[in-house]
Amino acid sequence: MTWIGMTHWCWLRAVGVFLLLFVGDLGGNSEVCSLCCIFLREDRGLNCTWAGNANTQYTLHLQSLKFNINKPSTVLNFTSLLGRTSILIPRKSLTKNDNYLLKLKHGAEEESYYFTYDDADKNLLIEPPLLSDVMFSGESDVSAHISWPIPSDNLHVAIRYQNLADTNSKEWIYADPSDIQHDNYEISDLEPFSQYDVQARYESNNTLRSLWSESRTFWTPEQAPVGPLDVWRNFDMKQFVILYWKPQHCQYPGSDKWNYIVTYIHGGGSNALKTPYREPLCEVKLPANSTHMCVSAQNNNGTGPPTCATTVCLDTKPLDVEIRVWLNVTQGVTVWWDESLNERCEDLTYLVEWTQLTEGGSKMKNWARRQVGKQNVTLPGKLDPQVPYQVSLFTLCQSDCKGPVSTIMFYSQEGVPSSAPNFSVLPLSSTDIFISWNEIPVWKQKGFITSYTVYLNSTVDSQRHPVSARNLSISGLLPSTVYEIWVTASTAAGEGTRGEVKVFHTKGIY
Ligand SMILES: *[C@@H]1O[C@H](CO)[C@@H](O)[C@H](O)[C@H]1NC(C)=O
Ligand SMILES: *[C@@H]1O[C@H](CO)[C@@H](O)[C@H](O)[C@H]1NC(C)=O
Ligand SMILES: *[C@@H]1O[C@H](CO)[C@@H](O)[C@H](O)[C@H]1NC(C)=O
Ligand SMILES: *[C@@H]1O[C@H](CO)[C@@H](O)[C@H](O)[C@H]1NC(C)=O
Ligand SMILES: *[C@@H]1O[C@H](CO)[C@@H](O)[C@H](O)[C@H]1NC(C)=O
Ligand SMILES: *[C@@H]1O[C@H](CO)[C@@H](O)[C@H](O)[C@H]1NC(C)=O
Ligand SMILES: *[C@@H]1O[C@H](CO)[C@@H](O)[C@H](O)[C@H]1NC(C)=O
Ligand SMILES: *[C@@H]1O[C@H](CO)[C@@H](O)[C@H](O)[C@H]1NC(C)=O
Ligand SMILES: *[C@@H]1O[C@H](CO)[C@@H](O)[C@H](O)[C@H]1NC(C)=O
Ligand SMILES: *[C@@H]1O[C@H](CO)[C@@H](O)[C@H](O)[C@H]1NC(C)=O
Fold it and tell me: Which segment of the chain is annotated as a signal peptide (predicted)?
C-alpha cells in the first residue's frame, strides 16, 4: 500500500484492502481512506476517494477482471478535478457482480484496489446512515433519540457523539454497542443547555461498512437554569454598590431572553428586582450598605439557584504584592502576580479584576478567579488606546474577602493629555511667585504623566520650566510687569494641550 504524502498520524484497522486514516483538522476529526470506493445509494455508481493532495491531479484506471480471450477488457480512465480527492464512477461504466481492479496513479505513485461491484462486497463501503431528526425525552435528565434506516439485516450501526460546548475536551463518546437498537438509539445523561454532534456508521461483523456520517448537531432542550453564577461587585464607590455577573449559557439559543432576579436587604427590608440579559456582563446598581445581594437566572422553565456577592472586602493595609500586566496580542490582558501572600486559608482563591477608570467611577471590564498555584490569568476583552485601565488583586477565603491587596494601572497605548492642569499663582514678592496645580483627572491624562511644563511670557522675556512636581517657585521676575502664564502636562507620547492662560502682574517696588 502506498502512502500518498501522508504526514498526519494514521491509525486504524485495515479492513479488506482499504485503510482508514483519521486526519485531525480544525473542524475536528475528518475521516479519509487511503483509497476506497463507496457504493452509492439507489445504485448510482461508485464514489472513489483517497487520501492525497487535492491540488494535484490523480488518475483512476478501472479494469474489469472478467477474463475474455477474444475481447480483453478495456481500461477506463478517470482524472480528478483540481481541488478534489474523489471521482464518481458512473453506474454505466460498471457491471453488477463483476470483479474489478482499480489503480490510483499520480506520477510514479500507484495504488491498487480490488472489488466486486455489489453493495455487499466487503471491499466496498456503502453510504453512511442517514440520521433522523433528534427527539427529546426525559424529565430530570435529558436524553436524545435518533433513528436510521437499516438497508440489510447484516448491518448494524455504531454511534458516537460529543459535547461541543465543552471546549476543554472535545472528544467523541462512543455508544456502548449493546445499548444500540437495530434502528434507533437513545443518548442519555446529556448536559442541559449544551450543543452536541452525533454521527453514525454502518458495521457488519466487526467490519466497517461505511465512513462516519455527517454530524447531526443539536441543542439539548431548555430547562430551568442550573448551576451557580459568577457574581462580583465594585468596592470603590461609597454612594452605591454595583453588582456584576456573567450571564449564563451565552451560547445557548434563547438564553439572551433570560431574566435575572436580584434580591438584597437594605434599610432592614428585603427587596427584589428583575433585570434582562446583557452581554458581556450584567450589572445592577444597588443602594450603598446593601447586604445579602444575590442573583439567580430565570427562564420560562423556572428560576435557578441564587449566587450571592460578598458584602464587605476587608481593605487591609496594602500588602504590596507585585502585579504585572501585559497586553495579550490575541485578546485582552494577561496578569501575573507574585504569590507571596501569607494567608492562612484552606481554600484560597485569587480574584483579578480589570476595570476602566471613567469620569463616573470605575467600570468593570472583566474578572477571573484562580486557585493558589496559578499565578497568571488572561482576561479577555477589548482594549481602547489612551484609556486608563486598572487591574486589582483580591483574595477570597470562603466568604471572606480581602483587598485590593494590589493595584496597577495601565494603557494599551499612551497619548498626550487632553487637558492642562488648573493652576494658581501666589505672589511671594515683587520678583518671586509660587505656582501650584492639581492632577488632571485620570480620564483626561491619556497616559502616565511624566512631567509638567510651566510657561511664562512677557513683552521682554519668555521662560519655560520643565518640572516633575506639582508646584514651582520662580524668582528673578521683573517687577511691575505683565506675565502670561500657562502650564502643560506631558506623557511619554508628548506634551498635552495648553489650557487657560493666566495674566499676572508682578508688584511694583515701593
Ligand atoms: C464523494 O466523496 C467525497 C469525499 O468524501 C465527497 O466530498 C463527495 O461529495 C462525494 N460525492 C458524491 C457524489 O457522493
Ligand atoms: C487508459 O490509460 C491507459 C494507460 O495510460 C491506456 O493504455 C488506455 O488506452 C486508456 N484508456 C482509454 C479508454 O483511453
Ligand atoms: C459473521 O462472521 C461469521 C464468521 O466469519 C459468519 O459465520 C457469520 O455469518 C457472519 N455474520 C454476518 C451477519 O455476516
Ligand atoms: C453606610 O454605613 C456606614 C456605617 O454603617 C455609614 O457611615 C454610611 O453613612 C452608610 N452609607 C450610606 C450611603 O447609607
Ligand atoms: C421549557 O420551556 C419551553 C418553552 O416555554 C418548553 O417548550 C419546554 O418544554 C420546557 N422544558 C421543560 C423541560 O419543561
Ligand atoms: C495570551 O492569552 C492566552 C490565553 O488566552 C495565554 O495562553 C497566552 O500565554 C497569553 N500570551 C501572553 C503573551 O501572555
Ligand atoms: C502562567 O502560569 C502557568 C501555570 O499556572 C505557567 O506555566 C506559565 O509559565 C505562566 N506564564 C507566565 C507568562 O508567567
Ligand atoms: C479645572 O477646574 C474646573 C472648575 O473647577 C473643572 O471643571 C475642571 O475639570 C478642572 N480641570 C482640570 C484639568 O483639573
Ligand atoms: C509672548 O509675548 C509676546 C509679546 O507679547 C508675543 O508676541 C508672543 O506671541 C507671546 N508668545 C506666546 C507663545 O504666547
Ligand atoms: C511642592 O511639591 C513637592 C513635591 O511634590 C511637595 O513635597 C511639596 O509639599 C509641595 N509644596 C507645596 C507648598 O505644595
Answer: 1-27
* Backbone CA torsion sign across 217, 221, 227, 233: positive
Give the Cα separation of 345 and 402 in Å (integer). 12
Which domains occur in the chain, in start order?
A: 14-126 (2.60.40.10), 135-219 (2.60.40.10), 230-308 (2.60.40.10), 323-410 (2.60.40.10), 423-505 (2.60.40.10)
Residues with CB under 6 A from ligand 10: 436, 469-471
Quick one: which atom of ligand 4 is closest to the CA of 240? 13
Within 104-243, residue ranges assigned H as helices are none
| 33/268 Cα distance (integer angstroms) | 71
Pocket of ligand 8 from Cβ distances under 6 Å:
419, 421-422, 438, 440-441, 444
- pTM of the entire structure? 0.74
Nearest CA to ligand 1 atom 11: 47
> What's the pLDDT at 461?
87
Choice from 31, 47, 87 to test ligand 1 binding pocket (greatest atom count within 8 A of CB): 47
Nearest residue (by CA) to ligand 9, atom 7, is 459
Helices (H) and strands (E) in the chain, counts: 1, 42
Which listed ligand is nearest to 300 at the C-alpha? 5
| Lowest mean pLDDT across 6-15, 105-114, 236-245, 384-393 | 6-15
Question: Grid coordinates representing 25?
Answer: 483538522
